[in-house]
Amino acid sequence: MRAVVQRVSQASVSIHQNIHAYIQKGLLVFVGIEDADEEEDVIWLSNKIVNLRIFDDANKVPNLSVKDTDGDILLVSQFTLHAATKKGNRPSYIRASKPEKALPLYFKLIDQLSRDLNKKIFTGQFGADMQVSLVNEGPITIWIDTQQKE
């Protein structure tokens, strides 16, 4: 799984000009799933996202997680995170899982994040044409790949 995690003061997903999900302070997380991903990747990624210390403490030092700050998470599926751009100018998405594989893992990630954060996770709509708006705080943007655990 690949995730792009952004610290936001607000973020929303609209579908057909209607707001589908909205959060204020928290994390906007784009996630892409590939065939090599398994349930253990879901657990690892959820733990990493919920515990990333990227929010400022009282001394303006990023020592707090979204969990510590009672922030929200907006999770958006994005197969393009697995784009291969080595050859030519048209990205290939061959590594991105088809919905039959990706959708169950996406729902497991929503459930795991909800358990780890102990609150509802806001989402986009898998496979939909979405418009995502955000105000990135910092800016802070973190890229995580479960196939490259460090």
State the gist of this model.
21% of the residues lie in helices and 37% in strands.
Care to describe what's here?
With 150 residues, the chain is an alpha/beta fold. It is built from two helices and eight strands. The protein has helices at residues 39-51, 99-117, and strands at residues 2-15, 18-23, 26-32, 55-56, 62-64, 72-77, 122-123, 131-145. Strands 1, 2, 3, 6, 7 and 8 form a six-stranded mixed β-sheet that branches. A two-stranded antiparallel sheet has the order 4-5. Helix 1 (39-51) crosses helix 2. The longest helix is centred in the C-terminal third of the chain and has 19 residues, at 99-117.
Topology:
Layout: E1 2-15, E2 18-23, E3 26-32, H1 39-51, E4 55-56, E5 62-64, E6 72-77, H2 99-117, E7 122-123, E8 131-145
Parallel strand pairs: 3-6, 6-7
Antiparallel strand pairs: 1-2, 1-3, 1-8, 4-5
Helix pairs in contact: 1-2
Count of the domains? 1
End-to-end CA span: 14 Å
Q: Give the CATH level 1 class.
A: Alpha Beta
Mean pLDDT: 94
Coarse shape: globular
Low-confidence stretches: none
SSE string:
EEEHEEEHEE
Helix percent reads: 10-25%
Structural class: alpha/beta
Taking the sheet with the most strands, its summary is:
6 strands, mixed
Number of helices: 2
What is the CATH topology assignment?
D-tyrosyl-trna(Tyr) Deacylase, Chain: A
The CATH homologous superfamily: D-tyrosyl-tRNA(Tyr) deacylase
In angstroms, what is the radius of gyration?
Answer: 15 Å
CATH hierarchy: architecture: 3-Layer(bba) Sandwich
As a percent range, the share of strand residues is 35-45%
